[in-house]
Amino acid sequence: MNGREQAGPTAAVAEQPGMWTRQGPYELGWDDLRTALDRIAAALRADGFVPGAVLAVARGGLVAASYLTCVLDAPVMRVVRVRRTRDDSQYAAKQPPLLEQEGPALEPGTPVLVVDDIVGTGATADVVRSHLLAAGFEAADLRFAALVRNHRSGFVPDYCPAVVDDWVVFPWEQGWSRTPGVRPFPLDEAP
């Protein structure tokens, strides 16, 4: 099931048992990031979806959304912040998603690409989707992209080049190159 087909929010708000194997985090480097984003852009083009706006889920989705805004030549980029963790530590405790709208609202009828770094449980995607639907957007005008999806997520983005079973260290995170026990990032063969 993808973001367009999902009937409603998933019940998952906190981590589900078995979400993280705790075998060591994956390291997503800058080269992997560009490869992942290029795969997302290629998949969007292949589908014929032309976003009139890119909606970045802050903070993690900002870099990816900025890149996709440029390569897809989208005319507008907006930001919405959804806070889920109590802090930035590895395996940090989750809380119910809190959505904070930043900047002017998007106009219903605009095709929107929502971009985040990772889909863990799907709760963030659910709250953003619900927010957009309540604002008058049609489900057919919404697409969701993420760099990574947790293998146990109840939400499957429309575009996502990697599925993981553990924590991901993104290149913009402080100390990413010094994280002990990191593993190579598992990019799928196709988006």
What does this structure look like?
The protein is α/β, with parallel strands linked by helices and 191 residues long. It contains 3 helices and 9 strands. It has helices spanning 30-47, 62-71, 123-134; strands at residues 26-27, 53-58, 77-85, 94-102, 112-119, 142-150, 163-164, 168-169, 183-184. It has a 6-stranded mixed sheet, sandwiched between helices. The chain has a 3-stranded parallel sheet with strand order 8-1-9, with no helix packed on it. β3 (77-85) and β4 (94-102) form a beta hairpin. The protein is globular, with a radius of gyration of 16 Å. The model is unreliable at 1-14 (pLDDT under 50).
Approximately what portion of the residues adopt beta-strand conformation?
A: 25-35%
End-to-end span in angstroms? Answer: 15 Å
| Total count of strands | 9
Major β-sheet annotation:
6 strands, mixed
- Helix percentage range: 10-25%
Q: Looking at the structure, what is the overall shape?
A: globular
Helix/strand order: EHEHEEEHEEEE
Overall mean pLDDT score?
80
Low-pLDDT ranges:
1-14
Number of helical elements: 3
- SSE class: alpha/beta
Widest beta sheet: strand line-up = 4-3-2-5-6-7
For the CA atoms, what is the radius of gyration?
Answer: 16 Å
Gist of the model:
The chain is of the alpha/beta class.
Keywords:
191 residues, six-stranded mixed sheet, three-stranded parallel sheet, alpha/beta, globular, disordered N terminus
